[in-house]
Amino acid sequence: MNIFIPLLAGVLIGYTLRKRGKKLNVDLPMSAALLLLIFFMGVEAGKVEINAGWLLVSSIVFAALTIAGSVGMALLVGGRR
Fold first, then answer.
1. Alpha carbons 6 and 9: distance in angstroms, whole number
2. Which residues cross the membrane (predicted)?
3. Are the C-beta atoms of residues 17 and 24 closer than 8 Å to each other?
């Protein structure tokens, strides 16, 4: 619910400024907010402890099975030419 209040406030302010014909340049604040969001997401991701070896092996196995399934379905549906 916290995210909807600023969103609705922004929509109302934008709608009000549109009626008055004023152009508001929000490129710089939006870029700064986006960079801060990405930074804090990285901080949160860095806090998580993972077993990198197990993650690597499971990712490789998942990718191999995905490729094998796709090739198998292509051969099943399309056949060899």
1. 5
2. 28-46, 53-77
3. yes
CA angle 60, 66, 68 (to 5 degrees): 100
pTM: 0.48
The two tokens of residue 12 are 């109302």
Distance CA 5, CA 12 (A): 11
CA 45 to CA 39: how far, in whole Å?
A: 10
Q: How many residues make up the chain in this entry?
A: 81
Between CA 80 and CA 61, with CA 73 as vertex, the angle to 5 degrees is 120
Separation of alpha carbons 40 and 34, rounded Å: 10
Helical ranges in the chain per DSSP H: 4-20, 27-47, 52-78
